[in-house]
Amino acid sequence: MKKSMFLLIIICALTTKRTKAQQYQPMPSADAVWCGDRGFIYSALQGYEYHTYTYQQFIIGDTIVNNVPYHKLYESGLFNWFTIPIGPGGSSGSSYYYKQYKGCFRELNKKIWFMESNISAEVLLYDFNLNVGDALPFTHVNSPAMLKITSIDSVLVGAVFHKKYNISTIDTLQWPTNFEYASIIEGVSSTHGLTWTLEPYFENHGALFSFKLNGMVLYPDTVTSCEITGIENFENTNKGVYIFPNPASKHITVKLNNARDLNSKILIYDLLGNTVFEKQATMQVESIDVSTLVKGIYLVRFGNETEKLVIN
Which DSSP letter does residue 235 get? Predict the structure, then answer.
């Protein structure tokens, strides 16, 4: 009798644990930080370059678009680049960037919707209604749609189980069958990062280092640091000028932190030193049309400060 009762207790405990693991965990709406990196080959007039970003993405406040509330997403980090192939005559560089607006997101019925900066239409980011064997729909991180769910399990995020959807590519001509190389996790993001592609790749990469909520790192464990050298104090930086978005394609916003810098010139140079844009700053937030600039790397000069700008 005692043995039967003991087994019953164990079965109940396991059942309770499994039930908790299946409880849906929503995305955070505030006080969240995603730390990671991403890299990709960039084609410029000067040739091919490899760009990497080591970053923190974080939520700061909310916004309303078309009467729909969203959570605003920003990013700070370190941008590095070098020419390909590496060798004589090659070049490289790096620069920090702070509080660049990445876009905004919202959640509805276990679906995460994302509206990228400078784009007025939202696109699906994640769908957590999927089952094993389902193909991932076309999303911001799955374009073109060539992925499927091959297994589902759970992972501890802090002290709470979150459902984890393991992903494989449908393209079995280039990749092994059921080759699970990435996952999406309820209430966290993907193992490639919150907004970075889930597609398998050779020369590109992306990785989520850690996820922090309410000041505590919860994933992949509670020990890993979410700080990145040089950007952990981004909110207290003394930089005099911010440029966002960066990279950009149509418009950039130049924010001047000090009102006494007004009436100074904002200058944009190409890498040959030619002035391609010049404007007298009359407001602390200036919008600049860069849609006529060819793709490549530029230098934005304001006063004694110079920032790198990438046009893509």
Answer: G
Statement: the pTM of the whole predicted model exceeds 0.70: no
At residue 254's C-alpha, the angle toward residues 209 and 140, to 5°, is 40
Q: What does the mean pLDDT of the chain come to?
A: 82
Mean pLDDT of the 216-221 span = 91
Q: Which CATH class is domain 238-311?
A: mainly beta
- Which uninterrupted H or E stretch holds 103? strand 92-108
- pLDDT tens, position by position, 256-282: 665 545 667 888 888 777 889 988 877
Radius of gyration of the chain (CA): 23
Q: Measure Cα distances from 146 to 1, 40, 172, 190, 258 in Å.
A: 54, 19, 10, 16, 48
Residue type, 71: H
What type of residue is 180?
E
Please, what sign has the CA dihedral across residues 130, 132, 135, 136? Answer: positive
Sketch the domain layout of the chain as residue ranges. Answer: 32-219, 238-311
Question: Which tokens hold the place of 154?
Answer: 């759970």
Segment of 5-9, 123-127, 145-149 carrying the highest mean pLDDT? 123-127
Q: How far apart are CA 222 and CA 210, in angstroms?
A: 9
> Is residue 97 within a helix (H) or strand (E), and if so which, with residue range?
strand 92-108
Q: How far apart are the first and last CA of the chain?
A: 72
Q: Exposed, middle or buried: residue 106 (CB in 10 Å: 0-12, 13-18, 19+)?
A: buried
CA 210/CA 213 separation, integer angstroms: 10
